[in-house]
Amino acid sequence: MSFRSTLILVRFLLTFINRRVFGRGILRSKTAKTAAIAIALTAFVGYGLLTVVVVRQYFDAEIVEILLLSGGAATPFWVLIAYTIVRVLFLKADQLTQLTFMLPATNRERTLAFAIFEALMVVGASLITFGAFIIAAATISGFSIIWRAVAAIFFPTILCYLLFSIVYLGVERLVITIGAGRLRGLIIPFLFAAALVGMFTLANSQSQEMLQGYLSGQPYFIPQLGFLKIADSAGPALAVLVFLILLLALGTLVLVAAPKDYEPVKQHYRVLSGKLASSQLGLHLLALVRSFETLIVLLFATLATAGIAILKIEIPPYVLLFVTFQGVYAFANSEPIRRATPAVQGAVASYLNLVTAQAIVLLVVAVPAVAVSTWLGIGIQHSALAIGFSACNILLSTLVGILFPADNGNPFSVVVGVVLVFAIVAMVAMGLNIFSLPVAINVAVVVLLSVAVVAYSIVGINRIERIRRYEIVA
């Protein structure tokens, strides 16, 4: 194995990101890039300031320590969530992977190059999630809390990521060996989704064990908090040394577990009757449901609903949000329909077909989800609110797919688009929360923003289609 080849692949992927994400569409303009960076930074700074205010007002040093330990105990659960999402994104990037075949690299070197980007995404998500809390905690407990956060959260995050990578690559090699490699796009995410149910139960029990042990002063053992235990008893240097040894060992196992050959993932599955293709809406519905990422989110929603029912977790059916995130691929997946349609379809009709197909899937999944929530005693008004949030998310995810089209399953466009849109939504939500406006005004703001999202999406489709027909210059 050559690390030089891996670095060539990393450089290739960086060039791809620069040209296909930051060099096309709305981010092609320097002004737009500057505005996007400003929006993301403003949202993070606002989130950080709000966290500092809340932590300093309501928490003391002991509560901060408990929250830090709880976050460390739950690390495997949320890392598994992040890893599963990232893996699905890169499974979709089948054509992107095939672009690297022209480079002098083996499949293991290719696996390592993609793993670097996946790890950066997971670590970045960790920094965004816990960064503001750590900064706020440092204003109470001092800068020593930063090291404790590294030992309790970031060290376990990196090692958990490598462990899940080993499991994933091992299962991938197994399904390829038995001749089901093309189906791994459904098989492996299904196994990981099922593991999330068990991981949630384990994280919950470990957090309770940690809390009881901490408050009572009795010893407790949670593996992911082991680095913090070592640092407290033998010093930070030994904790860092143990981490580096485990990092090297698990990194080696990742390379060993990687399959020698690459097998493409099956992107579409024949579900629903082909008779639906007699209408434009039916075509869009088939393109949506037959894509493997839609089937994955449907599996996730089904397993999450079943887990909620089995564990009797009394929460509104926000699992419906799972179903709406595949909207980021809806526009790109429907491109063959627009190309094959003899007559030019208007942007409004195209957009309505996109969101209506997603709404149909959402309503179908909402029936069992709402039924379970009602059975658990959740009021119908809370379920209606969850459906409303999910409907708004359809509009947002479709907008992301239009502004940052995931051509060839490009995962980087999806990530950048989701981050920017989430930053804007977070800024609006914080603004509404700070001003404490009446409910009627908040609803009116949300409706106006939804109308703006729809209008901008239609304008985006119209522009993209006119460029494709060479009516205007990009």
UniProtKB/TrEMBL annotation:
Q: Which UniProt keywords apply?
A: Membrane, Transmembrane, Transmembrane helix
UniProt keyword Membrane, yes or no:
yes
Q: What is this protein called?
A: Uncharacterized protein
**Domain of life, per lineage:** Bacteria
From the record, give the transmembrane residue ranges: 34-54, 66-90, 111-139, 145-171, 183-203, 237-258, 285-309, 315-332, 352-378, 384-405, 412-435, 441-459
Per the UniProt record, the source organism is Rhodoglobus aureus
